[in-house]
Amino acid sequence: MDTIKTNWEPTKNMKEYLSATELADFESDIVRETAKALLVGVQTQNEAAMKIYQFVQKMEYCLIPLETKASQVLKMNKSECAAKTTLLVALLRAVNISARYHFVSIKKELLNGLFHPLVYYFMAPVVPGHGFCEVYLDGNWIAIEVLWDTELFMVIKENKLNCLDFTCGQLEWDGKRDIALNKKWIAEDMGTFASADDLLKGNPMQLNFISKLFLPFGFYISNLHIEKMRKHYRKYKGVK
Hints:
The protein has helices at 29-39, 45-57, 70-76, 81-94, 117-122, 150-159, 197-201, 209-237, and strands spanning 60-61, 78-79, 99-107, 126-137, 140-144, 186-193. Strand 4 (126-137) and strand 5 (140-144) form a beta hairpin. By secondary structure, it is of the alpha+beta class. It is globular and about 50 Å long. Helix 3 (70-76) packs across helix 4 (81-94) and helix 6 packs across helix 8. The chain has one domain: C8orf32 fold, CATH 3.10.620. The chain is 40% helix and 16% strand. The strands form 2 sheets. Strands 5-4-3-6 form a 4-stranded antiparallel sheet. It starts with 28 loop residues before the first helix and ends with a helix.
């Protein structure tokens, strides 16, 4: 398969951070075509990274299986932290920009108010498996959390939820600074990964058998809860 032509060469000795994986499947037609479209009018790596970030950031936040492929995320046009990260990694690598995963365990209180109260109640005090992307630009690894679509970001901000700290209250990225989780909420740093396939297809949230059975229901009612917050915000702001 032909590589996508860019105005820059891939960084040397970064093969593992430029390769496709089963989940970061940038060799699929839909990911390749999306990456090509995002390159239109772009001259530099930084511009490409910013454009890709903006594209993924605008995608609606919604709880879906963490092990969703990048190509599937594009078809669904919605995602949560891990799958959004997979898409971000795939699109960046598709255009010769090194990218990797970073996973942490977070304190439960960070999620208070975001998920359905019943789901939150049964959560463990520490929640493993939160993933975000790091991109290699200008000789540095830069963290770029890409969870919130613009509307949900405003909902979270309006309600003063702790999860605003996922991005330290930032939404726009300038291609230089980190957009990263406030460290006070990190219970354990799980490290960086060139491929997260095994982790995400395993049990990154470290759920027991019963919890895994009820996870789809937990996602379902939490998505309803998030949509309810969105509708309340639209009504409050007079947005149809």
